[in-house]
Design goal:
By secondary structure, the protein is an alpha+beta fold. The protein is 18% helix and 40% strand. The protein folds into two domains: 152 residues, Diaminopimelate Epimerase, Chain A, domain 1 (Roll), CATH 3.10.310.10; 144 residues, Diaminopimelate Epimerase, Chain A, domain 1 (Roll), CATH 3.10.310.10. Strand 14 and strand 15 form a beta hairpin. The protein is globular. The protein binds the ligand N[C@@H](CCC[C@H](N)C(=O)O)C(=O)O. Ligand LBFN2T5F binds next to helix 3 and helix 5. Keywords: Amino-acid biosynthesis, Cytoplasm, Isomerase, Lysine biosynthesis.
Length: 315
């Protein structure tokens, strides 16, 4: 068993994880261990697993990646795996959970902490997290993560359908370190009829959409993708703010209650379609803010540590 005796259950707006600290680099999990621990019936349950370690202890990182993280002052690494055991480059909700975990862990060990933002290494580069405390709308232990550079493909460049569900929609590829295809399927604001028309959405309404099966994307993306389905709720051109609702089918997991990188990809796509850069986006698991500019995307939301769990050695 390459998992420590003590692990934690945590979530970021309902995107839930098995989490553990591995500061000495001795607990790199196998695919089978990830699948077993994240199993919702026979394990602890989670959309993924977060191993919080040091860059030099991540076996798939090149020496150059490790040196780059260290040179960028990032002493912690978020080693994320999807529930099916696959590695993913990035997990937006996971970064906030990791930041909260490191903060609590340092409090317990008495390790000196300053109020400086956390520089967290990930497979998609170093992400910077600031703690904002509690917020009336966003919840407790809110962090803002600067997710850095994004890239967008041709707007509505893909067709998305779902096996067993009538209809389809056009979707836009966004790279947030990991791959996303974002489909606008409703416009509750009635302000972007042209955008909605170009999405050619004939799928059922977002609240009734059956996401139990993996969406089919054409042209195919070799590395697979996370797929977001989005409804614009309202826009205020005076303040430059919009509200939207999003559901997501995650690569390596299935439908989840929230996906941080998916929210960022949604913000990037909605900005391309509407010109609005600041979005408050509801997901099944909560509400988050997404702010986009040409250089980066910032994601703001809560993080929760639910339990400390002692694993049964026989498990
Ligand atoms: N839930 C995550 C994304 C996790 C990785 C994703 N399933 C992938 O394979 O790319 C998030 O909060 O960003």
């Amino acid at each position: 068993m390459s998992i420590p005796d003590i692990v934690y259950k945590a979530h970021g707006t309902g995107n839930d994880f098995v989490v553990y600290a591995d500061p000495e680099g001795i607990y790199e999990p196998s695919t089978e261990e990830v699948v077993r621990l994240t199993d919702r019936h026979r394990g602890i349950g989670g959309d993924g697993l977060l191993r919080i370690t040091r860059p030099q202890f991540v076996s798939d990182l090149s020496e150059g990646d490790v040196r780059a993280a260290q040179a960028d002052d990032a002493s912690w690494f978020m080693d994320y795996r999807n529930a099916d055991g696959s590695l993913a480059q990035m997990c937006g909700n996971g970064t906030r959970v990791t930041a909260l975990f490191i903060r609590r862990m340092c409090m317990l060990t008495g390790e000196a902490q300053d109020d400086k933002p956390l520089r967290l290494a990930t497979r998609a580069g170093v992400k910077i997290l600031s703690s904002l405390g509690d917020d009336e709308l966003l919840g407790q232990d809110v962090f803002r993560v600067d997710m850095g550079k994004w890239a967008i493909g041709p707007v509505m460049g893909h067709t998305v359908s779902i096996p067993g569900v009538e209809g389809s929609a056009r979707g836009t590829y966004v790279n947030m370190g990991n791959p996303h295809v974002v489909c606008l399927i409703e416009d509750g604001s009635a302000s972007y009829t042209e955008a909605l028309e170009s999405s050619q959405a004939t799928l059922p309404a977002l609240t009734t959409l059956d996401l139990s099966r993996k969406p089919v994307v054409s042209p195919v993306l070799d590395e697979g993708q996370n797929v977001e389905f989005v409804r614009i709720e309202s826009v205020d051109p005076l303040t430059g703010q919009g509200r939207a609702f999003m559901r997501v089918h995650e690569r390596g997991v299935g439908e989840t209650l929230s996906c941080g990188t998916g929210l960022c990809a949604t913000g990037v796509t909605l900005r391309a379609l509407t010109g609005i850069s600041h979005w408050t986006i509801h997901v099944l698991g909560g509400v988050l803010d997404v702010d986009v500019d040409d250089e980066s995307v910032r994601l703001t939301g809560s993080a929760t540590i639910v339990a400390r769990i002692e694993l049964n050695p026989q498990h």
